[in-house]
Fold this protein.
Amino acid sequence: MKRIIPSLSFYKNLILVLLVGNCFYLSGCAVNPATGDYDFVLMSEQDEQKVGRQNNQQIRKQLAILETTELQRYVQQVGLKIARVSHRPSLPYQFAVIDSPEVNAFALPGGYIYVYRGLLAYLNSEAELAAVLAHEIAHVTARHSVQQHGMSTASNVFGKVVAAYTGIGVAGDLTNILGSAVVRGYGREHELEADGLGAAYLAKAGYNPQAMISVVKILKHHEIWAKKQAEAEGKEVSTYHGIFSTHPDNDTRLHEVVTSVATTSQGHMFSERYLQKINGLAFGESVNSGVTVDSQFLHKPMNFKLRFPHHWKIINTHAHLVAHPIEQEAIFVMEQGPIKNGFRPDTYLKSLADQRYRLRGGESIHIGNTIGYTAVVQPKLGGSYIRLAILFHQGKVFILQGQVKQSSAFTSYDVEFLQIIKSFQPLPRQDYQRAEGKKLRLIKVTPGITFSKLANSSPLKEHAELQLRLINDMYPRGEPKVGQWLKVIK
């Protein structure tokens, strides 16, 4: 007789039924402070805050925090205004802006909430900013990440029991659920719950709850745009987690949870106040992380310039500068290294190579007051060559390396690796302005202004007209009205 094996989803649902059905008898059950329901959790509020503090410290080491203190204070003020009317007002909430062009936001357990600079450029009112923060606060007040942690831990335990009887492991795909939820969202039900709670918080704080719908529309339009761009460049799109990215602004249930609050409170949008706060905000790359102009990378705070071949693509991250040719057969990486007292560039490079590598073709580099050393490195046990260089520049150490996919292509690409390394120079004064990057500016619309005309004078090279419509919530065919404030890129 053929053995019928239940599906993996059956066992996941079984786990959920067992947990919920026996919740009153388990020490891990607690009343949800936001919903009043019983939740299965294996983390106390004290532990929740400890996890938040620890992860907050790690994030601040890995991601750049915007240095504009006035904007940081503003976001903190708006966030606290929402948090004070939430179900958990006593948590030590902290709000911060990450200096990145990514359009995203997320919350850590315990009340640590981050919004990316890139997202701020697409919002058009304080109420919309409050809506984003309220959504993230709701994840905290409803303890969504803590619930995911509890279910993950319990699922792994039950998974071993299920595996013993069926030979099917269910634990593997449920691990690390806390980390993935923060980035990708908590599932449709939790995301809708966060929107409903967030809308209620907006109303209590004096904002228009419909701002939640406005934000969904803005982010949905951005997602459509980002997907088209990603497909053109052959890469995956990164979008804001949860309901904002996975459901349209006309989603029935989303409207229901917001409308139930909106009927009792209209609130305010505070559009002009918000726009004035973001006037001058960096758009795209920022001066603090360096900017890409044509085939050059300009870093004003660190005072250097690097030139790449025209057919190379430059990717600027917080920790590394990465570049590769269009055919992606090679990669070049630049990063800042630790200072080693008493080391010269050549001894520094040899200390990195140690005994596992052979060095050949070493040569010194002198560019003004910058000194360095470069050599080709090959693992003694075999493997691809690496072009490695060390540069000492104004009290900092830079490590540059080029590698190829196929060893046979190293010689031809090494010519370009050396050109990149030797193009390093102090930032020329004539490049100071370009190194500031693009900024978001406000203009008052006068008769005759159209997005087409603005696009003609915009520093945005590709699809400027559509991008201007996107940041002003007029995508895909809207036009500005005389007298309104408009965001442009300078």
About this structure: Residues 144-166 form the longest helix (23 residues).
